[in-house]
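Lab channel / #folding
Pinned by the channel admin:
"Please post every new chain as: sequence first, then the structure tokens as a reply. Keep commentary short and put observations after the output so the thread stays searchable."

First post following the new format, from NK:
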Amino acid sequence: MRDKSYRRHKDEVKKEKCHQVLLGRAKNNYFSKNKTSDQIHEECSDKKTIGRMASVHSAGCSCHSCGNPRKHFGEKTRQEIISEKKEKEDKEE
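Reply from TO:
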């Protein structure tokens, strides 16, 4: 059984990954072109934002563009469509 120290360690790893994701998004952002890397790093080091992103697995938001199509439009997800195509191909063979 895992203890608290392991969970804390995994939480820190997750937060560091989210921090890297935030930095990558900020560097590719149109509005960040005139900023230095130190300014970008400072803006992306907000612990509250990093913690929030880590708790939702780095998801940017849950709008209709980013969210699950089944939830917003009643459509199948991409993975479901792919698996159905593979099943059809297997049945045809």
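NK: Helices lie at 4-27, 37-43, 47-55, 69-73, 78-92.
TO: also worth noting, The longest helix spans residues 4-27.
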